[in-house]
Specification:
Strands 1-2-6-3-5-4 form a six-stranded mixed sheet, sandwiched between helices. The protein has a five-stranded mixed sheet with strand order 7-11-8-10-9, with helices on both faces. It has 444 residues and is an alpha+beta fold. The chain folds into two domains: 228 residues, Cytochrome Bc1 Complex, Chain A, domain 1 (2-Layer Sandwich); 182 residues, 2-Layer Sandwich (Cytochrome Bc1 Complex, Chain A, domain 1), CATH 3.30.830.10. It is globular and about 60 Å long. It has 16 helices and eleven strands. Helix 10 packs across helix 13, helix 11 packs antiparallel against helix 12 and helix 13 runs antiparallel to helix 15.
């Protein structure tokens, strides 16, 4: 078994031939009501399958914000035909895997296998999606594990800062606004098996369901297996239409005090109102990468390398695949360096905001973004993920061929104009989580 695992891991990293166009080699069909996208790559023996349907927390009932996540957590815990252990044994015997998850907007799966085992994996996927067992024993176990995970997350300064940030920048009812950890724990404890079953019956089905397959595929055989395994399945509901986040009345600066922590995490930013692909999105994304992407970003070069004030710092656009998203700087500081670190961060933000980026920075970053994008297409899993992300973001598969030209066509006025148009440092929220000097624990 261990030999199979290592063999499979190595095969999964083989570089595919991505020098040509992706779209012409992609076969997109409707099978049993499912949008199926298949790409036969140059890799041998390995196949990745990924899928998504709009059954995330955006569709949770008003009185419980965790039902969708619990449904996603139950999918790999047995079906009406096979127990959890039986499914695990079947997968392990061929060195394959299937993972399920549910996020704010979508439920997803990620599967990998050898080419000869595609029929088995397709049949198991269909079985787990269509007829989960929903046993009381596994549901109780999942609830306990979920509560444990939430309690552990509350010990992370990074999690606490980013979690509180969502409630500062997103208005009530927006999918990106997270219920607090304590609210989620209470919701998990109150959740019932009937609620989980009802959610699955209502929102899971072939409508609005997308499956992407890439690798050493026999595409007609894959299509036949999907048609057989998913035949007769009905249902599914459309994505939730979400209005853009409204302004909130949250305090612009907040502290989440956590005792006995060696670092303080900050999240500093605002909602953008931008959805992936909107006008100005890629201009702002490129500008943001110049400010704070990796070791070549201004933030790392100055706040960390020159001033030695932080363990790590960066800026990004996030949470915009399905809805309007946010822009933020995240950083970690030693408590004694917190004030100096925040001051340095704001200084770099001000220079970037007021003066913009340079032509040389833009040229280098465009090359970097295009290169990183192509690297992402160079593995079978990366190709499958990129195809799925394109569809999730409302694009056709041809977007993978268009993206490099979109980035290369950006001009300096576009990039610098997007910064001023969509951001305002005076309107940003600063969240600090950890043992913040001078702060006191919240009253209980």
């Amino acid at each position: 078994m261990k030999r199979l695992f290592y063999l499979f891991t190595a095969l999964g990293t083989i570089v595919t031939a991505t020098h040509g166009q992706i779209a012409p080699g992609t076969v997109r069909t409707k099978i049993a009501g499912i949008d199926v996208i298949a790409y036969k790559s140059g890799v041998k023996d390995v196949v990745y399958l990924r899928g998504t349907l709009p059954a995330g927390d955006a569709k949770d009932p008003a009185d419980n914000p965790v039902i969708a996540s619990l449904v996603g957590g139950m999918l790999d815990r047995g079906t009406t035909k096979h127990t959890k252990d039986q499914i695990t044994e079947m997968l392990e015997s061929v060195g394959a895997s299937i993972d399920f998850s549910a996020g704010d907007n979508a439920a997803e799966f990620n599967a990998r296998c050898l080419a000869k085992d595609v029929p088995l994996i397709v049949s198991l996927l269909a079985e787990q999606l269509r007829s989960p067992a929903f046993t009381a024993e596994e549901f109780d176990r999942l609830k306990q594990q979920t509560v444990g995970g939430l309690k552990r997350a509350q010990e992370s300064t990074d999690f606490r800062a980013t979690d509180a940030f969502t409630r500062a920048v997103y208005s009530s009812g927006h999918p990106n606004r997270q219920a607090s950890p304590d609210e989620k724990i209470a919701a998990v404890q109150a959740a019932t098996l009937d609620q989980v079953k009802a959610f699955h019956a209502k929102h899971y089905g072939p409508a609005y369901f997308t499956i992407v397959a890439a690798g050493d595929l026999d595409i007609p055989a894959l299509q036949a297996e999907l048609g057989k395994s998913f035949a007769g399945w009905t249902g599914g509901t459309p994505p939730v239409a979400t209005p853009k986040s409204a302004p909130t009345d949250a305090a612009k600066e907040q502290t989440v005090f956590m005792a006995d922590k060696t670092s303080v995490s900050i999240t500093y930013g605002q909602a953008t109102g931008l959805h992936y692909g909107d006008p100005d999105y890629f201009a702002l994304r490129t500008a943001t990468a110049i400010l704070g992407s990796g070791f070549t970003g201004r933030l790392m070069g100055n706040v960390r390398d020159k001033e030695g004030l932080t363990y790590g710092i960066g800026s990004s656009l996030k949470n915009d695949a399905f809805t309007d998203g946010d822009w933020s700087i995240t950083a970690t500081f030693a408590p004694a360096l917190l004030d100096k670190g925040i001051a340095s961060t704001k200084r770099q933000l001000g220079l970037w905001y007021n003066d913009g980026v340079t032509a040389d920075e833009l040229d280098r970053r465009k090359d970097n973004l295009v290169g990183s994008f192509k690297v992402g297409l160079a593995t079978t899993n990366g190709l499958a993920q990129s195809l799925l992300l394109a569809v999730q973001r409302g694009k056709d598969v041809s977007w993978l061929d268009q993206y490099p030209d979109v980035i290369r066509s950006l001009t300096l006025p576009q990039v610098n104009g997007a910064i001023k148009k969509h951001l305002n440092p005076d309107q940003m929220y600063l969240i600090k989580a950890g043992t913040v000097p001078g702060a006191l624990p919240a009253a209980k």
